[in-house]
Please model this.
Amino acid sequence: MRDRYGIAFRITGVASRRLGWIVDANGLDTTTALALSDDREGHGFSRADELLKEKGLQPLRAKALDVKSWLAAARADVLFEATSLNVKDGQPAADHIRAALEHGAHAITANKGPIVHAYRELRDLAAARGKRFLFESTVMDGVPIFSLFDQLPAIHLHGFHGILNSTTNVILGEMEQGLTFDEALKKAQSLGVAETDATHDIDGWDAAVKTAALITVLMDIPVRLDQIEREGIRDLTTQAVRNARRDGWPFKLVCRAQRVGDGVKASVRPEKVLIGTPMADISGTSSYVAFNTDIFPLLAITEQDPGLYATAYGLLADFVRAAER
Model:
């Protein structure tokens, strides 16, 4: 990073539900930080204490510290926020980002919730503090969707459509091979594609939140999740999925948004798409989005089977953007 971009950094704080708030303004040893974050055996605080004591560091706990004092103790210049999605209100991620900006740090997130529930407030707060609020990893991992439109000034986005949830792609693909919905879900979970509780994916919530994020930021139209027509894939039968593929019109979970007057009409639902079209080719963990603008009638991005590091790359790319400002 230093050689290529002239950026030097150190990790001064790590926080998680299991570990609490750990901080050292002089810089946490990266080996220790990685060991803490990779506590797969679930030893939690006790193991964290052991690792920190080995390095001569003192842990700070959630009971004695909140995000604001943690940021102050860490003397943070940048916050990476990667908590789990809360569809209802985007918390606690929104409060974490707000605290970072008020502290005077750039805020980078992979969490879609704050974009849907608090985007304008956080955007304006970042501008007022002269800091960056960046979120490229929230949709299609680290693919530069939001930053792409930063390079397209004065363009008018009429709408978009695409496939933005990889879990449903995998499940539908397995159903086309003859598995039941439950069997396909279990296989997706065994592959590490689907979470233990895959409700957000199979019921269309993840795709709806991504759709709302794109509408809110790129179309500059605040939209509530209940304004997006949402239908998941739970009710599709194996026979229906196999027949659709046989007939040349496979099912995909499709996101759509279109300007209507001063508002937007948006949906997430299973649709049959024609074989030979770009969306029909999207399978596995791949994603696709196509934008309809006044200058470019169809501007499309395809992400083909991203690796495990794609989301992390998006966070890194945002860090470079923030540091170079």
Q: What stands out?
A: The chain has 13 helices and eleven strands. The mean pLDDT is 90. The first helix runs from residue 2 to 5.
